[in-house]
Amino acid sequence: MPKTDFITKLLIWRLRHLSNQSFIIILSGIIGIISGLAAVMLKSGVHAIQEFLTEDFYNEYANFLYILYPMIGIAAAYFVGKYIFKDVGGHGIPDVLFNISKKQSLIPRVKMYSRLFTSALTVGFGGSVGLEAPMVVTGSAIGSNTGLLMHLNAKKRTLLIGCGAAAAISAIFGAPIGAVIFAIEVILMEISTASFIPLLIASVMGSLTSMIIIGKDSIFKFNFSETFQAAHMPYYLLLGIICGLVSLYFSRAVRRTETAMEGLESQTLRMLYGGALLGFMVFFFPPIYGEGYSTLNQLIDGKSAEILNRSPFFSVIENPYMIIVFLVLIILVKPIASALTIGGGGSGGIFAPSLYVGGIVGFGFAYSKNLFGFHIPLPLASFTLVAMCGVMSGVQHSPLSAIFLIAEITGGYELFVPLMFVSAISFITTTYYQKDSLYSLQLKDKGKFIPESKDQELLELIDITHVIERDLLPVHPDAKLKDLIDLVKISKRNIFPVVDDKKALRGIITLDDIRDIMFDTTRQETIFIRDLMHSPPEILLATENMQKAMDKFESSGAWNLPVIENGVYLGFVSKSRIFNAYRKRLIRQKQD
């Protein structure tokens, strides 16, 4: 039976036997399972590659292959993506957000599997990025294309994209609640009770799939037994501020490095420079190889001295103060290394690097304070985990996701109070200097805009050319007042555009402009339109988005504004026409 016939019969059967909500719930479960399988495949593949490449490395010697591996991985990922999948790597989550906002939640089918291969090559060979963003892209693409196959509208495809993203994060971290909140906070712009259930189902199925195949093997392997003490709160306050400032540095370092990489003339140069620079960074700082979660496990387990191993200059140094210097250097280098990986052509995201940097910040903060020995000692594991939450909150502007993700990773809610506190302080500190998240800034750097609210999203769906009113009668600038009076007699509008022979707008005239002289027969023969016309308060361009148009209405105080395309007058747009189109869009979305 052809696939199209099977799908048609399936859709007919579901219309007869299943409600929309029941059908979405079934699809969410299927998407959760498939996304969970994809996450397991990617994690297992990356770990196998890393173990194969580095298992014979000696701690006491310089391992020069660290210089070569990242360049090989980035080049392989780029060529596989370009010539096999026709899908070059780069950032994943910003592209998903853009597809939801501007492309009716349609994600190319190739992204359901391309990022599995390109990110495995990138991270497996030492690219200093994370697997979470590629998995979110993969899960989102699975959700989007499932919705497209089932003939669902854009709103329901968006929900399935959120289901795929939640399932992917849940499968990677084993944190279903945090994954759901991530999907709501980062991917989706709104949520209802009916939409919440499919997200829960997908997240649970993703986590269960991962547990069944690879067990309860978590990314972070430790037994957390420390208890929260109120006496630590002043230090958590200071940690929150530091996390906010580090988040700010992280975002700016990533963007400036990416801008520098884009300034290179060709992709070949980007691969060579990016791979070489990254290779030398990994050679001197082996903990930034790949995702780096093993380093955080060592720190949480109290094995801080081991992070100096495999570094050609630091491994022989046993001074505890050198550990602090080493950690500070890693904090400064990691964002740059992540940007070099992606800018060079690799595939990955900044989700894991933000967690990694946060963990280093928290451990370094507590370790330094304990080393100097004043006041009460600080628990290293607690501050490491809480700072991971703080930097993730600051970089991604997702405080709730960060709180629940780390709370679930710890296996309990002992740290819930400091997690909430540090996440809030970090978020406040970062947003004081930088309003947008790194994802939004990366899109803006590329000239892409995503709406920040539901109102903006609806406005973006309205094309300015679809609301142009063309019933305003034009008048030539060389015409006389009497010619305009003839138009007034047959026109139902009180604005008259002044248009020349080339269809260019020269100005406008309103009834108020001629009310005092329109019945003066002498002036009707002697006054020309060019002497009466004046410039409109603002001019709209046919290529402008509706948000920009509304800003012009707001600043000018006008109710009607002319629209120009390539210097040619098209017509007028009125606020009432926009409000009517907005209302229709709002009603249609509620019906969907």
UniProtKB/TrEMBL annotation:
<protein>
    <submittedName>
        <fullName>Chloride channel protein</fullName>
    </submittedName>
</protein>
<dbReference type="InterPro" id="IPR000644">
    <property type="entry name" value="CBS_dom"/>
</dbReference>
<feature type="transmembrane region" description="Helical">
    <location>
        <begin position="61"/>
        <end position="81"/>
    </location>
</feature>
<keyword id="KW-0813">Transport</keyword>
<feature type="domain" description="CBS">
    <location>
        <begin position="533"/>
        <end position="590"/>
    </location>
</feature>
<keyword id="KW-0129">CBS domain</keyword>
<dbReference type="InterPro" id="IPR050368">
    <property type="entry name" value="ClC-type_chloride_channel"/>
</dbReference>
<feature type="domain" description="CBS">
    <location>
        <begin position="468"/>
        <end position="525"/>
    </location>
</feature>
<keyword id="KW-1133">Transmembrane helix</keyword>
<keyword id="KW-0869">Chloride channel</keyword>
<feature type="transmembrane region" description="Helical">
    <location>
        <begin position="159"/>
        <end position="184"/>
    </location>
</feature>
<keyword id="KW-0407">Ion channel</keyword>
<feature type="transmembrane region" description="Helical">
    <location>
        <begin position="196"/>
        <end position="214"/>
    </location>
</feature>
<feature type="transmembrane region" description="Helical">
    <location>
        <begin position="21"/>
        <end position="41"/>
    </location>
</feature>
<feature type="transmembrane region" description="Helical">
    <location>
        <begin position="271"/>
        <end position="289"/>
    </location>
</feature>
<dbReference type="InterPro" id="IPR014743">
    <property type="entry name" value="Cl-channel_core"/>
</dbReference>
<keyword id="KW-0472">Membrane</keyword>
<keyword id="KW-0868">Chloride</keyword>
<dbReference type="Pfam" id="PF00654">
    <property type="entry name" value="Voltage_CLC"/>
</dbReference>
<feature type="transmembrane region" description="Helical">
    <location>
        <begin position="234"/>
        <end position="250"/>
    </location>
</feature>
<keyword id="KW-0812">Transmembrane</keyword>
<dbReference type="InterPro" id="IPR046342">
    <property type="entry name" value="CBS_dom_sf"/>
</dbReference>
<feature type="transmembrane region" description="Helical">
    <location>
        <begin position="374"/>
        <end position="395"/>
    </location>
</feature>
<dbReference type="InterPro" id="IPR001807">
    <property type="entry name" value="ClC"/>
</dbReference>
<keyword id="KW-0406">Ion transport</keyword>
<feature type="transmembrane region" description="Helical">
    <location>
        <begin position="112"/>
        <end position="131"/>
    </location>
</feature>
<feature type="transmembrane region" description="Helical">
    <location>
        <begin position="350"/>
        <end position="368"/>
    </location>
</feature>
<feature type="transmembrane region" description="Helical">
    <location>
        <begin position="321"/>
        <end position="343"/>
    </location>
</feature>
<dbReference type="Pfam" id="PF00571">
    <property type="entry name" value="CBS"/>
</dbReference>
